[in-house]
């Protein structure tokens, strides 16, 4: 009897004890694993725009960026194995009306790590390598993001008709990537030759901004109607309500970062265009910021209510990280544009919330990975 109990205890302590075989790690790997890369990378990127900087903050951001890069490589390689060894399962997930939405996490993971490579990785990699790597990741992430923003809605339109109440906050996942491209692409404008190359990239980023914003606003309207008429999603999916903040924060970030770079493009007689884009970024940021406050409060209330009734851990918990991180970058960019210390201070407060959320979710994820339960179908 004692030997049996010891054997059971040893099995529980064994790595991947919940799996019948280690190969099961790849069998049910889903695209929402890339949300861990997004959520980790935004912690690093947001640290670099805080109103107060120090060598300690830079060291912390560098360590987190390296972790995000390693996660991108590891999860990316595992995802390739998943498609090669379990193609039937992979195709089934890609066709699933809920899981397919999380394919938007793939380009956003690339874009997030790419942005960190440019802003954080330069001292380690050198300017040339950092810029080239960032550019490759931006082009790859943008291409995949645009395809996802069109492919996933098209697949939903041509699938069996669903009721309006089926709308979920996760529907925003495939339409947000072009907005991330717009905000991260702003940093690449200064590295292009003056004239037409800079203008082309800036104009392209604004086009991406418009694509994501309009698709996102239409989607958010449907999601809001669903929440009002259909109620909060089941507890496992409840954290995805935070994804709505991703559109808010990322669009504020993009509007103001692109406006700042527009002064490198519109010079001389065309300088008023840059001034107009700056005004647009400020007004948009203030207006959308008000909407963000409402959505933050709503998401918090839903989360607290769900937690009281039972909020089991799932990979959807990573929804607590990236959207809050975009609000940090958005408030900091807006604060710089209007030279407002309180707005930038709000960004710093949100960063504390972000780090706390990331530490909690990362710890729970590591525990679930060790046991292996997270690799099994939900």
UniProtKB/TrEMBL annotation:
Membrane topology term: Multi-pass membrane protein
Keyword Coiled coil among record annotations: no
GO terms classed as biological process: transmembrane transport
Cellular component terms per the entry's GO annotation: plasma membrane
The keyword Transmembrane is assigned to this record: yes
Transmembrane segments: 33-50, 56-81, 102-120, 135-156, 168-193, 199-225, 237-259, 279-302, 314-336, 348-370
Family annotation (Pfam families): SLAC1
Location(s), subcellular: Cell membrane
Keywords on record: Cell membrane, Membrane, Transmembrane, Transmembrane helix, Transport
CDD domains in alphabetical order: TDT_like_2
Homology family: Belongs to the tellurite-resistance/dicarboxylate transporter (TDT) family.
Name listed for the protein in its UniProt record: C4-dicarboxylate ABC transporter
